[in-house]
Structure prediction request, 464 residues.
Amino acid sequence: MTDGIGRVAWWGFSPSQSLVRLLETNLREELTEEGDGGSEREKDVNVLMVGAGDCRHILKTLVDAKRYPNVQFNIYVIEPRMEVVARHMLLLSIALKKKNVVGLDAKVNMFLELYGNTLIRPATSSFLREEASFLIKMITDPSAMAARMPWISLDQLKFKHRDELESICKFWREEEQSAFPVQELWDARLRQQHKERYDVRENMFDWDHAMNLVEKCPYIQGKHYKQWRETGVAFEEGDAEYSVPNNTLASGEMIKTSKGVVAKRGYWGDMVTGPFITFGADPSLSDKFREKRNNKLRYNAVDITRYNVLSLFGQLTYGEEFKATLQDNATGDGFQTKVEVLDDDEEGDDDESEEVHMKVDNVRVHFLQPGAMENELIRKPRHHNKFHAAVFSNSMVHLLTKDVAKVMRDKSMIACESAKYMLVLNKDQTKQFTEKVVDFAKAATFKPLGDASVDADVLVFTRG
Prediction:
């Protein structure tokens, strides 16, 4: 599976989901809603997130957690690569910037560029260098982290992991484009992937889109998908220039060569599915996304992604009362989506404060070291009976062993990313993957919540 999907998960392969809403499925009585007059049954609610690849679930959880001010939500994150942890920190930092520091539209654009593009604008590259310096300060100074980003904890990382995070952020400040010639690296991966069919790769892109992707997510347009497959650029705004390598997508690998095994920096992520699924496969926020013209959907996954991310950031800034409306501008090749922010004159944060981030009251993200599941959580009794819910990516579901039962509480939930959007798998392989996940969950004393369908985005299991 590694040829097309790659060795590093820079993004997930399922739509974003709120961990709070997952908890509400089976544990609503454990949560104390504001103003209900009930007693607190749980001071802390702990959720384990294994290999998600990005912070999409955390962002939705930050919004929904506001409904339960008496509950402290602790999200424990395990990623196999520290480069992914660094991106978690960067993208969360961007999302939680105050509106007087970064405007809403600018925040959305920079987030999406850094999230899913191999090439970014010069202005975004300058912002990345500044943000990398800020993160280095946070990583190397625990007291600064506690004061400036108290909603993130690196306490359970070893010094070597902190050093690695610092080194990664230092590379992000690199201005010399030859340090990460991502266009050359992308083309080299294309050549390796397609081999003798390299010259007809566009036909392969068309086939994957028409035969594998459209039936699963009809909002992903062929032109966007093929452009990303060719260049690695998924999200563009207007006529902006996307010319600077996105250093956050660089990682190192040990590669076998004729001279032996050598360390090589490159792009080792997904080159088949793309970053469209996580925020662009869920059209539920606006009925307009289901509209058709000439029997074709008027809006696409890029439109939906931009709208959904803006809605998330708006709700983080202004609260759940934030609303956005869609306005269409007819163009020669269809429609572009514009977002009009309502009630933008309301105070969403304290503009007089010197802090650059919004206040986060009841969510904290704890980054655990790679291998923490086997070496820490399962082995040490203090972590047993700890988690109310767990989320596994499809690339890390092998960690869902029978021993996971030790760390999960009664009535807890497990959500496993399905293989629905793994285009490298055929239907029989997808079915086999689904059956294997069900077997893993049952061995850990969990049973499917409803049918474990191969067409589901996420497979949900419950205990008790």
